[in-house]
Amino acid sequence: MNQQQGNQPIKEFRVQGGIKAAIWRNEVQQNGRTVVQYSIKVQRSYKDKGTGDWKTTDYFRPQDLPRLILAAQEAFRFVSLDDEEVDESSASAGT
């Protein structure tokens, strides 16, 4: 999955301090079945003091870590619940 070709995340969690977790969902074939895989990108936005432009980084300051943890937990919760929905719909389709 190439995130640079205009693919959009299925969900984003934004946390105070410019921290964002973005989630991509990708269906792949494994052993004859369709399997859902997720990619999660966490980044921090900041304003460049020299140019005034908004930029992103994947480096975090110590004071960012509690917010990073929150964004990561929300992303994990989302993909875990989405996996359960996929499993339930697969089970329902078989009955």
Plain-language structure description:
By secondary structure, the chain is α+β, with helices and mostly antiparallel strands. The protein is built from 1 helix and 4 strands; from the N terminus they run ββββα. The longest helix is centred in the C-terminal third of the chain and has 29 residues, at 65-93. It is elongated, with a radius of gyration of 17 Å. The model has no long low-confidence stretch (mean pLDDT 86).
Task: Tell me the layout of helices and strands.
Blueprint lengths: L10 E5 L3 E12 L2 E15 L6 E4 L7 H29 L2
Labels describing this entry:
single chain; 95 residues; alpha+beta; 4-stranded antiparallel beta sheet; elongated
Residue stretches low in confidence (pLDDT < 50, at least 5 long) are none
What's the Cα radius of gyration? 17 Å
Q: Total number of β-strand segments?
A: 4
- Which structural class fits the helix and strand makeup? alpha+beta
Through-space gap between termini: 32 Å
Number of separate domains: 1
Q: Estimate the mean pLDDT confidence.
A: 86
Strand order of the largest sheet: 1-2-3-4
Helix content: 25-40%
Question: In percent, how much strand structure appears in the residues?
Answer: 35-45%
Q: Element order, helices and strands?
A: EEEEH
Shape: elongated
Individual helix count: 1
Main sheet specs: 4 strands, antiparallel
